[in-house]
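Let us practice reading a record.
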Amino acid sequence: MRPSKDLPVVYLCREAVDFRKGINGLAALVEAELDLDPFSEQLFVFCNRRRNRVRILYWERNGFCLWHKRLERDRFHWPRREPGTVVKWTGQQLNWLLDGIDVLRVQPHARLHYRSVL
């Protein structure tokens, strides 16, 4: 079970979260602290203080779903130095994070914009 790479926006909570919070606590955090709509069918991603666990909360038609991954040895490369309380990523970036890739260090070639081929 993996999030789709085609998701346009995934919201990461930049600050560490107490993982004793369950679905209700995380949904309340999305609404009150992140100022986002937990019923928007977007993915909301959280990490614990040790950065060895990730939880993904999302609303699916008639109820919340909670996905959890625990690393046995490594840590997730979490965007702690990004400004603001929420970081917007794509589904592809989220999958890179789950695979252990440091998303902030991955840099594609610059996008080029031309007006004509002549």
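A brief commentary: DSSP finds two helices and five strands in the chain.
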